[in-house]
Amino acid sequence: MRGRPGVTVPPPRVMILADASRTATVIEVRAHDRPGLLWRVGQALGSCGLQVRAAQVDTLGAEAVDVFYVVDEEGLPLEDPAALAAVREEVLAALR
Length: 96
Known about the structure:
Alpha-Beta Plaits
Protein backbone atom coordinates (compact mmCIF):
# COMPACT_ATOMS: atom_id res chain seq x y z
CA MET A 1 0.00 0.00 0.00
CA ARG A 2 1.41 3.37 -0.96
CA GLY A 3 0.81 6.50 1.03
CA ARG A 4 2.11 10.00 0.96
CA PRO A 5 5.69 10.45 2.15
CA GLY A 6 5.80 11.29 5.86
CA VAL A 7 2.21 10.16 6.48
CA THR A 8 1.79 7.08 8.63
CA VAL A 9 -0.93 4.73 7.44
CA PRO A 10 -2.41 2.56 10.20
CA PRO A 11 -2.57 -1.16 9.52
CA PRO A 12 -5.96 -2.58 8.50
CA ARG A 13 -8.18 -3.98 11.23
CA VAL A 14 -10.94 -6.57 10.96
CA MET A 15 -13.17 -7.09 13.98
CA ILE A 16 -15.98 -9.58 14.50
CA LEU A 17 -18.61 -7.77 16.57
CA ALA A 18 -20.07 -10.50 18.75
CA ASP A 19 -23.68 -10.03 19.81
CA ALA A 20 -24.18 -7.05 17.48
CA SER A 21 -26.96 -8.91 15.63
CA ARG A 22 -29.04 -12.03 16.23
CA THR A 23 -29.60 -12.63 12.51
CA ALA A 24 -26.14 -12.05 11.00
CA THR A 25 -22.44 -12.02 11.79
CA VAL A 26 -21.23 -8.43 11.95
CA ILE A 27 -17.75 -7.69 10.63
CA GLU A 28 -16.16 -4.24 10.90
CA VAL A 29 -13.31 -3.41 8.54
CA ARG A 30 -11.09 -0.36 9.03
CA ALA A 31 -8.43 0.35 6.44
CA HIS A 32 -6.78 3.12 4.50
CA ASP A 33 -9.23 3.83 1.67
CA ARG A 34 -8.05 3.03 -1.83
CA PRO A 35 -9.55 1.97 -5.15
CA GLY A 36 -10.91 -1.58 -5.10
CA LEU A 37 -11.06 -1.87 -1.32
CA LEU A 38 -14.72 -2.93 -1.19
CA TRP A 39 -14.21 -5.35 -4.06
CA ARG A 40 -11.33 -7.04 -2.22
CA VAL A 41 -13.35 -7.35 0.99
CA GLY A 42 -16.36 -8.70 -0.93
CA GLN A 43 -14.18 -11.26 -2.71
CA ALA A 44 -12.70 -12.40 0.60
CA LEU A 45 -16.13 -12.78 2.20
CA GLY A 46 -17.41 -14.67 -0.84
CA SER A 47 -14.42 -17.00 -0.83
CA CYS A 48 -15.39 -17.91 2.75
CA GLY A 49 -18.86 -18.91 1.51
CA LEU A 50 -20.55 -15.89 3.04
CA GLN A 51 -23.34 -13.73 1.67
CA VAL A 52 -23.54 -10.02 2.51
CA ARG A 53 -27.03 -9.34 3.81
CA ALA A 54 -26.37 -5.62 4.46
CA ALA A 55 -23.44 -3.21 4.62
CA GLN A 56 -22.74 0.25 5.91
CA VAL A 57 -19.87 1.85 4.02
CA ASP A 58 -18.27 5.04 5.32
CA THR A 59 -15.11 6.97 4.59
CA LEU A 60 -13.75 9.22 7.31
CA GLY A 61 -10.96 11.27 5.78
CA ALA A 62 -8.60 8.72 4.25
CA GLU A 63 -9.93 5.88 6.42
CA ALA A 64 -12.64 3.45 5.29
CA VAL A 65 -14.87 2.19 8.09
CA ASP A 66 -17.13 -0.50 6.65
CA VAL A 67 -19.52 -2.82 8.47
CA PHE A 68 -20.82 -6.01 6.85
CA TYR A 69 -23.73 -8.16 8.02
CA VAL A 70 -23.01 -11.61 6.64
CA VAL A 71 -24.62 -15.05 6.76
CA ASP A 72 -23.55 -18.52 5.68
CA GLU A 73 -25.05 -20.53 2.78
CA GLU A 74 -27.99 -21.49 5.00
CA GLY A 75 -28.74 -17.86 5.88
CA LEU A 76 -27.42 -18.18 9.42
CA PRO A 77 -24.80 -16.20 11.33
CA LEU A 78 -21.45 -17.88 11.93
CA GLU A 79 -20.92 -19.16 15.44
CA ASP A 80 -17.88 -21.44 15.19
CA PRO A 81 -14.82 -19.60 16.61
CA ALA A 82 -12.49 -21.31 14.11
CA ALA A 83 -14.67 -20.22 11.17
CA LEU A 84 -14.81 -16.66 12.52
CA ALA A 85 -11.03 -16.57 12.88
CA ALA A 86 -10.62 -17.90 9.32
CA VAL A 87 -12.93 -15.18 7.94
CA ARG A 88 -11.03 -12.50 9.83
CA GLU A 89 -7.69 -13.74 8.47
CA GLU A 90 -9.05 -14.03 4.89
CA VAL A 91 -10.30 -10.43 4.95
CA LEU A 92 -7.06 -9.18 6.50
CA ALA A 93 -5.05 -10.98 3.81
CA ALA A 94 -7.16 -9.27 1.14
CA LEU A 95 -6.32 -5.87 2.63
CA ARG A 96 -2.55 -6.35 2.59
